Sequence to fold (176 residues):
Amino acid sequence: DFVRRGQVLTTISHPELVRLQRTYLETKAGLDALKKDFERKKRLASEDAASQKSLEQAEADYNRALAQSKGLKAELELLGFSIKKLDEGQIQSRLNIYAPISGYIHEIGINPGKLVGEEDMLYEMLDVEHMHLELQIFAKDLEKINEGQHLEAMVPGTGKTFKGEVHRIGRMIDIE
Fold:
């Protein structure tokens, strides 16, 4: 099937996605209090009303929570969640997977109800905007081929002829 760039291909859901969003919101909520505590202890330490150790601990707690918040935000953005919606308190239980390019779906690696991992291929798509043909030639014919050279290729069984030009010549030689 042909799909356009940005078209929804599938929707995934998993409790881990909800947990990740909840952790982000919890961390973000505690961040403001940690910042105020750090600033208060900084002010008190400058007036010698608080210990340096207390100030350093407050600074470390704030910086740790800030790093965790930024890391979770980046992870959620990478997954495709709307941080704007999340910051408004809207936890999303489903995540849409969109077509990154316009083209044809060549292979589908998932089905409804399947648990997918990070390494799983969901779809294999063909980009027909830039088609190329990869040819293998005999070593003895290598000097007959040049970049920019025009050629015609026929697809077996169709009788259709494609015109093109040599764009690149690989430098790998297969001894066999």
Summary: The chain has a mean pLDDT of 88. Strands lie at 2-3, 8-12, 95-98, 103-108, 123-126, 150-154, 161-165.
